[in-house]
Amino acid sequence: MDGFSRRKVLTAGGALGALGALGLATPANARSLWTWAPGSSVAGSGAGIDPQWVWDEEADPVLAAVLERGGIGAINDQLATWTRNDQAPPAGLPADLREFMDHARRMPSWADRDKLDRASRINLKKGIYIGALYGLGSGLMSTAIPRESRAVYYSKGGADMKDRIAKTAKLGYDIGALDAYLPQGSMIVTGVKTRMVHAAVRHLLPQSPDWTRTSGGQKSPISQADILVTWHSLATFVMRRMREWGVRVSAADAEAYLHVWQVSAHMLGVRDEYIPATWDAANAQSRQLLDPVLASTYEGRALTEVLLDIVAELDLGLTRPLISAFSRYTLGDRVGDMIGLAREPILEPLIAAAWPLLVAFREGLIALPVIPAAAWTLEEALRQFVLLFLNEAQPISISIPDMNRPA
Ligand code: HEM
Question: Which positions fall inside the ER-bound oxygenase mpaB/mpaB'/Rubber oxygenase catalytic domain (predicted)?
Fold first, then answer.
C-alpha cells in the first residue's frame, strides 16, 4: 500500500473504530475502539495507532516484488537449506530478500537470554498441558477467528490442511524447544520465514475473489491487530487456562513464558509498541482484541471439521468424541458452539469432573484420586497427540506460497 492510501486508511480507522465501539460493526468484523496504551508495551511508548491499520512495511514490499518477479520454486529450495538461527540467509537468494532477512533475523535489543533459557525448560515440566492447549485449544479457537479462518481457507495452504497444520505445529515445536533461540535452534528462522509467508499472503489474498467477497471490507489481510489476536489465542489463552486449571506456574516461569512469546511476536514483525510488557497488559489487550472478534463462519466450521478429522486419524477415530469433548471443555461452550463442535452428553460431564482431579494429581496437590477410566484414556490420547504434534513437526520446511487456494 502506498503512503497516500495508507494515510487514508489510517484516518478511516478512527471512524471505523468508532462504529465498532457503537456496536454497529457486523459480528465477523466486531472490534472495540483501540484504547490500549503503548505505555504498557515492551517499547514503553508509541504512536498509539490502531494496529488494525498497520501491516508490515518492511516485509510487504519486498515479498510483493519477489512474487511479481516469479521463480518462487527456486527461492523455496534455497529457503529449505536455511534452518539454524546462526546461519546466514542462503547466498543464492535474491539480494532484496536476503537483505530483508538479514535485518529481520536480528533479535530485539530487549531479548533476555536468562528468561529465554528459563522459558525453554517450562515445556519439560508442563509440556502435556501446553501441547494439548496449543493443539486442541488455540488450534481450534483459530477457526472461531473469522479473519484468520478466511485467510487460511482461501490461501494456498487451505487446500491441504494437513500440511498446513504440520507447518504451524512446527512453530509450536520450535518455540518450546530447549534451544529455541540459541545458535543451533531454529525459532529465528521459523519466525522470519513465517513473517515472509504472511507478507506473501498480503500480496496474494487480495487477488482472491473469494477472500475479497468475505473479508468484510479489509483490503489487506493479516494486520498487526490480526497477528496479536492470534498471539493471544496462543500465549494468553494457554497461560489463562493453566492458571484456571490450577497448574502450578511460578511467577518467574510465567514471566519467562511471556518473554519467549514477546520475542516471537517481534520476530513475526509485530511492532514493539504493540507487544504487551506484562501479563496484566496482555490480558487487557486480549479482552480488547480477541474476545470481541470470535464468531462463527462457514470457513471456520469447515476448518474445524478438517482439523478434527486429522486429529481423529491419529488413532483411527477412536477418540474423536473424547477429543471433541475435551476441546469443548478447554474452549468453553460459547466457542465450542461457534465452531460447530458436536455435543458429547456423556463425555462432557465426565471430563469436567475428572480433569481437575487429574491436574491436581499431576501437580502433586492430591494423592491418586479415583479417576474414571475415560480420564486416563483422555490423558493417553493427549500424550499421543502431543508427541505426534512434536514429532511430525520437525522435518517440515515453511515455504512461500505463490498462489491462493485453487477455486
Ligand atoms: C502461515 C504462524 C498469525 C494467516 C503461517 C505459518 C506459520 C504461521 C508457522 C507457516 C505455515 C504455513 O506455511 O502454512 C502464525 C502465528 C501467528 C499467525 C504464530 C500469530 C502469532 C496469522 C494471522 C493470519 C494468518 C493473524 C490471518 C489473519 C496465515 C496464512 C498462512 C500463514 C494465510 C499461509 C498459508 C499458506 O498458504 O500456506 N502462519 N500465524 N496467520 N498464516 Fe499465520
Answer: 133-343
